[in-house]
Amino acid sequence: MTDPATPPNGPTGQDPAAPLDVASLQARLARFAAARDWGPFHTPKNLATALSVEASELVEIFQWLTPEQSTRVMEDEDSAHRVEDEIADVLAYLLQLCEVLGVDALAALSAKIDRNERRFPLPGA
Amino acid sequence: MTDPATPPNGPTGQDPAAPLDVASLQARLARFAAARDWGPFHTPKNLATALSVEASELVEIFQWLTPEQSTRVMEDEDSAHRVEDEIADVLAYLLQLCEVLGVDALAALSAKIDRNERRFPLPGA
Amino acid sequence: MTDPATPPNGPTGQDPAAPLDVASLQARLARFAAARDWGPFHTPKNLATALSVEASELVEIFQWLTPEQSTRVMEDEDSAHRVEDEIADVLAYLLQLCEVLGVDALAALSAKIDRNERRFPLPGA
Amino acid sequence: MTDPATPPNGPTGQDPAAPLDVASLQARLARFAAARDWGPFHTPKNLATALSVEASELVEIFQWLTPEQSTRVMEDEDSAHRVEDEIADVLAYLLQLCEVLGVDALAALSAKIDRNERRFPLPGA
């Protein structure tokens, strides 16, 4: 695996060997912003705000759909692309927020599911 | 590694051996909701809406803070827990939305970063 | 004053004499949607969702600005128009939601300020 | 009518004679914040952010309801109070934002409806 700290693929920094896991994508996002000097804009407050804006752009795709229509949103090529694009944007800002705050998103989610299993025990449990 | 399809740890379904990766957490969330019959509530529209609500709960932690104060939010135990909890909630709904829509969140993000590297090339690229 | 229930100004329904008050604008919005058969889309859930989407479009104008830059947003013609447009959109959905639910927005706000004056009394009060 | 600039009713500033119109409520909100020295927190950016947070609290009331259930939300006393409370909060932050930016919310909405009547003309218009 290529060392994520030294992308080998020219001035765009594109790294085709980057694995699809959270740590690698989070590092890729950090390099992307650093290379463009976006750091000053990426305060935790601004990143959380940007995340909420993207979450609303995702909701917007569904806002006039019935619940049943919403289940078929991936059947149309245009709305499918919009959905994937906004999901990517939400995840991007979530990981950038985790990066600047030093939060492990997967560990936080695992701990939350543990707590929810205690809060909402199954019948007979 | 324990087979994620058959959690061995009693009626609560808690699976201490589940690895911290997106696929495992996404499967764990799906089992959790299915076991409690939450399926009918989890239309894509409702999940996207719930995600945006949690994103706003995350923003709320920062809403009266200055940009500088926001960088120190993890230094206070209470706000640190709130931040981790809301990050977990946003990720939970994002993965549940991906599950019902059949979207691969990591692949979508990787493709988005590829597109952004072309849209925002580095000087000299 | 022209009776808001019977706009006199041709097929577009434009009523230049409609006073600038909440009740008249709320009625104007209701006629606009009814004339275009938008009723089925205007469930309370959809209207609340649309309102939150517009609120995020308003936030988006500010998301990378510093607090100080945000105070000067009306000095640029383009951002000033965007701000007014999104404020209008938020108010439009708020009033349409009040219309379908039978809520009096101004009375609700007045009562809320009363409650806040008791919750946050001035020193010496 | 009582002069909104000089509330006569003691240290809480409560003014029972304040009419229910946008200008009076906007002034009442401004006095409330000024009396508590909340000015530094009320940057346009923070007010827009707070508005979006309240808009999401309003959506949250509906997030697991079906469209049909959402039409009956005012029939339950608790959810009716929650709805009115969040509508009030959204309107409060909208008017406070308009106050600090010098935007006339009602004029902005009226102009927006005019534009929409041109964008979405009725058949035969």
TrEMBL record, chains A, B, C, D:
Gene3D superfamilies: MazG-like (1.10.287.1080). Signal peptide: none annotated. PANTHER family: DCTP PYROPHOSPHATASE 1 (PTHR46523). It comes from the Bacteria. InterPro entries: dCTP_Pyrophosphatase, DCTPP. It comes from Streptomyces beihaiensis. This is Nucleotide pyrophosphohydrolase.
